[in-house]
Amino acid sequence: MSLPVEVLTGAVRGGTSILYAAVGESVSETAGVVNLGTEGSMLVGALAAYAVTANTGNPWVGAAAGAAAGAALALVHAYFVLQRRSNQLATGLVVLFLGLGVTSLFGAAYVSREVNSFKPWAVPLLSKIPWVGEILFHHDPLTYLTFLLVPAAWFVLRRTGIGLLVRGAGERSEVLATYGHNVRVVQYLAVVTGGLLAGVGGAQLSTAYANAWFENMTQGRGFVAVAVVIFAARKPLAAMGGSYLFGAALALSPALQARGFAINQFALDSLPYLTVILVLVLLGRKRAAQAPEGLQKVFELSTS
Amino acid sequence: MRRSTRYAAAAAVASLLLAAGCSSNGGTPTNAAAGGSSTTAAPASSGTGPGKDSKAVGFIFVGPKDDYGYNQAAYQGAMAVKAEFKDLEVLTAENVPETDEAARVMEGMIAKGAKIIFATSYGHLDAAMKVAADHPDVAVVQQGNFIKGTVPPNAGTYFGTVYEPVYLAGIAAGKATKTNKLGYVYAFPIPQTIANIDAFERGAQSVNPAAQTYVVNTSNWCDPAKQAEAAKSLLSQGVDVLTQHQDCTGTITKAAEAAGAMVVGYHADASSLAPKGWIAGSEWDWKALYTDIVKTALAGDFTGSKYNANFRSGLKDGLNPFVQSKYGSSVSDDTKTVIAAAKQDISTTGSPFKGPVVAQDGKVLIPDGTVPDYATIESTITVFVKGVVGDIPKQ
């Protein structure tokens, strides 16, 4: 496998868990709620998926459990932010630590368990296309699902009445209320959907990619997803690009080393994070100005 | 107002990203001992050294006690101590970071009556030395690191010569490979890891001069996703035997099995994860060494003993806590005979680093015919030998 093909394949493989979380966070932020607990939702999703797969032998049941667990944790965030009007950023962090603590406690028993994980499956015909086939069509089923999820998320958010409600909840909640919609319900659903997708991302990490559960195994990927959403301006397609960029930066280091290239390892290791920070710095100011009104209100700590 | 809060939010995200890059968890001591009945009599006291007549022993681990690896083995060692000394309370703490937090955890154990402390991770040394300096009556031993300069009367380090069984496993890998490419996934370029990689390559070379070892590091003791990526990269380069130096070993073992490659284990017997690909491995058995250290300290004989130093145990003294795992089904009797002969040689007059040992750049590390002692190996085998493909990351 040539170096570019290997790195790009690794980008899709490693970026998919982040992509799930980023699409979820896009939905949540479009409705005006930032969820830094995304990392926590990924973690509980990873553990729930792994544990349920270990006990049922079916990774699909596991992925469903991961989705439910991620959604449940996001519900905690939604309750405190929407019902109790607590600060979004602080609450998100608390929710993250809740997820970390819960998974450390209940995950210990699963560290040494073996599971029947998702297997990579080459798509007939498409996988034979030179380059593209290798990069895109030799993956696990959860990765293929993102190829449908991303356009679907875009379509729902931008082209449907539901999307209009979600955007309205983030931009002009008083208008929504005037028209008789329940803003809080819309926001609840958006946040929970975000957690659900982050949970599936966690499931992809533990039962399709790494095939293991280990305490804090997300290693900050949920935060990367939040950062990706900021520079993707909550656009699912751009979030896909951002997630793959991070995945590529992660894949570059082992690909170069396995070929015996002598490159400063520590610089390579920080590359994924530097990439994200750099893009944030370059795009941050412009993007932040376009953020939904609801998000900007949050930053001023005001309540409506 | 709006602008400044926006920057504050950006700063928060940035700092979280940084924190994510180097995360660690706080650990809390848990009391693992039951107040069991006293059946074993305390050893007869002879000396007056640190740790004498201690009522408890403390163990700190950098990871969870069931990681299928390093920490699990150390924990099992602690449980062996508990079984051996029924009067002793055994205190254990998991997930103790390699920071000042470790010193606080050890202080907490001392407050509970522990006068013998095992700090079991490489990076616990600084904290362990600090605690040792503050408590002259407590014996503090550290696993795997090296005290430079004068060793205080109540401290020491201990370790097995891990590279000996790794060398033997390298022989199995060299015999098994068809592509002559072996893959080694490691975490950090610490001396112990470099010696392992070199020993593995030398073991393979001893039976297959064309065998080369390709190395990839992950800069993390356990990031399963990074391990998966590293394994894929090596396998795509034609590597057909994978081994590793990681704290959690499941991901790479399964990746090798899934790709139809062979795998050499490390830290623990993971042959059940790779029924087809498992060929050999090395694992820990700390029971004998831990028990002996505790016995020595309880008797008051710690100061001046072999453990009051940088103690290294190997095949030659029979106490080596690092032993060979069982062979996989594909290993031939011929290979087993070759390995048995090599083991016999190392146990008597040989060494995995018997000269000539030549570095990647051609520099002779150990001259022809010389059999280095453990201290010499630790101080000279700090670079990759010829046959290893890859570079040691520079600061």
- Strand composition percent of chain A: under 5%
Given as residue ranges, the uncertain stretches of chain B (5+ residues, pLDDT < 50) are 1-11, 16-45
Please state the overall shape of chain B, judged from the principal axes of the Cα atoms.
Answer: globular
**Distance between the ends of chain A:** 56 Å
Q: What is the count of helical runs of chain A?
A: 13
Characterization of the model:
The complex is a heterodimer of chains A (304) and B (395). Chain A has a two-stranded antiparallel ribbon. In chain A, 74% of the residues lie in helices and 1% in strands. With 304 residues, chain A is an all-alpha fold. Chain A starts with a helix and ends in a 5-residue tail after the last helix. Chain A contains 13 helices and two strands, in the order ααααβαβαααααααα. Chain B has 395 residues and is of the alpha/beta class. Chain B has eleven helices and 16 strands. Chain B is globular, with a radius of gyration of 22 Å. The model of chain B is unreliable at 1-11 and 16-45 (pLDDT under 50). Classes of the chains: A mainly alpha (304), B alpha/beta (395). The interface between A and B is large, with 62 and 63 residues.
